[in-house]
Design goal:
The protein has 236 residues and is an alpha+beta fold. 26% of the residues lie in helices and 34% in strands. Strand 10 and strand 11 (143-146) form a beta hairpin. It is elongated and about 95 Å long.
Amino acid sequence: MDTAYVTLSRQSGLMNEMRLVANNIANANTTGYRAQGLLFSEFVRDMPGNPSLSMSRAEVRNTSLQQGVLSETGGQFDFAIEGDGFFMIETPAGNRLTRAGAFSPSADGDLVTMDGHRVLDSNGAPVFIPPDAASIDVGNDGTMSVNGQLLGQIGVYRVADPKTLVREGSTQFRAEGEIEPVEDPVVIHRFLEGSNVNAIAQVSRMVEIQRAYELGQSFLDTEDDRLRGALKALMR
């Protein structure tokens, strides 16, 4: 039975990883999406009167912060970050971080995300776009101006410890640790950053997971047949 418990723990972890990989593939074309992975670890449980039992656990998720491909869109309010950092947005649940830079002005003149969340500047205040602004000029550091008049600077922030990032939805993160502005950010105007998912690698991993799961299921079926045979022999 111990071997069955070990295999079941592995099967559970493989199922969790399969869900993550499938979600990565589904978001391969989502602007600003960061690929997720799963970390497997050993879990040792004491068994009274027997040797300890070693099982696998796969509960810790990690997020790839690798740069995605930057694509020119020509959009007046499209922005991409080159290098480290996140845009900060204001949501009903609090401030959140994102790499998805497809913004637009609201009816009130605030620069907002596709979900209507306000984009914050380097001081944590909402970015305002004058209603009569036909076009804006953006510096490499995210400084915006209209007809030579400074509007502000799009905020780019980093987390002191990336492990404190908690994913919320597809492209938003909550930082449970310290957040600080990036001193010399690089903001590319009229570009968007694509997903950093390597679709080919993810599909290959999906095949590997499926094969590993089928192998584990085959072992469980064989073990079940063995136990049933042993019980029938004892009952004779």
